[in-house]
């Protein structure tokens, strides 16, 4: 259920305001057929909050009916799941998913209006009005009635140029930090893979021809299938009633979104009550279980269970792997699963990371290099320290990105509402003209 919107209806603006429907013409012309030279834009082809278009041939090809025609200069805003803030200015003629509102500005500079509809205040007001639990949408009747800033066109153009310049600088910093996250992720993956396949030395390795996944192993190591090293391989279940049985506090219920390579992320964890947990005792977690996502886009992610989250249970998208402790160190197992040895087996014979699911039988047949138990413990302890350093840096970079995104939003809100005076701002020569 959406919250009361009364506190979101007023827009604190130093600029004159207008109801959106009085400053635009909504276009609803449908296309029975799309010209070959027309780009087709779906919601997944627009980056949240930035208005940037993303190439997605699969999404484009999947759209064929009910498409709405747009022309250069129109502003499009996604009415489905508006909290995703999907909006952009068209720089050419094309066709869009019917989940977009297509607006032709009559009293707005197109780029200024784009920043208005992508401001957090606007998005929050629209999102608070949505109807439908699974596919929340906002209506044009509500969106069109919203009061939005509408200064004179010269002020709009200057504000749009100011935001174009400064958000581009912020976006460049965000992109740089996102690339750093990728490099840190690659370093983490490479570090784990090196230690779980070579140990502490690259010497004294011998070829191993027993399985195609392990080319060579150090002396005194073995190659063994999961099913010979585990007491349990099985997933949880979704309780009767699904999300309706979740409670505000109770037994931790792990879903696939909680399972991350960096560990269990409990920020949006849900809970079940004691009765439901008792009915699911067969899938109750134990300390040092290893969890593996077995379906969907997050397939292959894994995490180690610690005693701090217990009691806990899992749903059917998460597999519980319970190692035999006299053979396999749980932390070592978790690191092996996140290395290329097991990840390659998960995505074998698949294109990229498109695999839809893995079965318990397939997991049982996965092979891993197996050093003596004492060496497993040494390796996992060393990786705990090394990966903690990488994860700490990773978290700091994520925080920096979050701060930059907050700065971007604050700047947009301030500029489109007139809270900062940009009337004397002059763009660099190469940005002197902003398209209307």
Could you describe the 3D structure shown?
This protein is of the alpha+beta class. The chain has 3 domains: 144 residues, DNA methylase specificity domains (Adenine-n6-DNA-methyltransferase TaqI, Chain A, domain 2, Alpha-Beta Complex); 96 residues, Helix Hairpins; 170 residues, Adenine-n6-DNA-methyltransferase TaqI, Chain A, domain 2 (Alpha-Beta Complex). It contains 10 helices and 22 strands. The longest helix has 46 residues. The chain is elongated, with a radius of gyration of 27 Å. The N terminus is likely disordered.
Topology:
Blueprint (H helix, E strand, L loop, with lengths): L16 E3 L4 E4 L12 E2 L15 H6 L5 E3 L4 E4 L8 E3 L4 E3 L3 E6 L4 H8 L2 H8 L12 H6 L1 E3 L3 H46 L6 E3 L8 E3 L3 E4 L4 E6 L15 E4 L4 E2 L2 E2 L5 E3 L1 H6 L10 E4 L8 E3 L7 E3 L3 E6 L6 H8 L2 H7 L13 H6 L1 E4 L2 H44 L20
Parallel strand pairs: 3-7, 14-20
Antiparallel strand pairs: 1-9, 2-8, 4-7, 5-6, 5-8, 10-11, 12-22, 13-21, 14-17, 15-16, 18-19, 18-21
Helix pairs in contact: 2-5, 5-10
């Amino acid at each position: 259920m959406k919250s009361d919107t009364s506190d979101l209806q007023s827009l604190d603006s130093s600029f004159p305001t207008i109801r959106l429907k009085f400053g635009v013409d909504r276009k609803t012309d449908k296309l029975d057929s799309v010209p070959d030279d027309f780009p087709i834009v779906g919601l997944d082809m627009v980056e949240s909050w930035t208005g940037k278009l993303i190439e997605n041939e699969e999404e484009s090809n999947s759209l064929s009916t009910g498409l709405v025609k747009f022309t250069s200069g129109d502003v499009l805003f996604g009415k489905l799941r508006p909290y995703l803030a999907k909006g952009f200015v068209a720089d050419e003629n094309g066709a869009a998913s019917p989940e977009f509102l297509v607006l032709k500005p009559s009293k707005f500079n197109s780029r200024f209006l784009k920043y208005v509809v992508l401001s957090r205040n606007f998005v929050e007001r629209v999102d608070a009005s949505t109807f439908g639990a699974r596919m929340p949408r906002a209506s044009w009747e509500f969106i069109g009635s919203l009061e939005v800033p509408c200064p004179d066109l010269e002020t709009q153009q200057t504000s749009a140029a100011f935001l174009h310049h400064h958000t581009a600088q912020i976006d460049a910093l965000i992109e740089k930090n996102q690339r750093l996250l990728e490099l840190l992720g690659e370093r983490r993956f490479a570090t784990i893979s090196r230690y779980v396949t070579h140990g502490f030395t690259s010497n004294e390795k011998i070829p191993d021809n027993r399985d195609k996944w392990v080319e060579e192993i150090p002396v005194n190591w073995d190659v063994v299938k999961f099913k010979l090293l585990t007491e349990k391989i099985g997933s949880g279940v979704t309780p009767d009633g699904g999300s309706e049985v979740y409670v505000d506090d109770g037994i931790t219920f792990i879903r696939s979104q909680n399972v991350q390579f960096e560990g269990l992320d409990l920020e949006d964890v849900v809970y079940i009550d004691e009765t439901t947990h008792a009915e699911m005792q067969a899938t109750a977690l134990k300390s040092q279980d290893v969890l593996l996502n077995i379906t969907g886009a997050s397939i292959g992610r894994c995490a180690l269970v610690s005693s701090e989250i217990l009691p806990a249970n899992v749903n059917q998208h998460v597999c519980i792997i319970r190692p035999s402790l006299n053979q396999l160190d749980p932390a070592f197992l978790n690191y092996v699963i996140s290395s290329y040895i097991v990840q390659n087996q998960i995505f074998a014979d698949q294109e990229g990371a498109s695999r839809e699911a893995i079965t318990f039988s397939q997991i049982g047949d996965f092979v891993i290099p197996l050093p003596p138990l004492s060496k497993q413990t040494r390796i996992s302890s060393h990786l705990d320290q090394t990966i903690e350093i990488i994860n700490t840096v990773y978290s700091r970079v994520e925080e920096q990105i979050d701060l930059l995104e907050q700065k971007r939003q604050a700047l947009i809100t301030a500029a489109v509402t007139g809270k900062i005076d940009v009337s004397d701002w002059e763009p660099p020569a190469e940005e002197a003209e902003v398209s209307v």
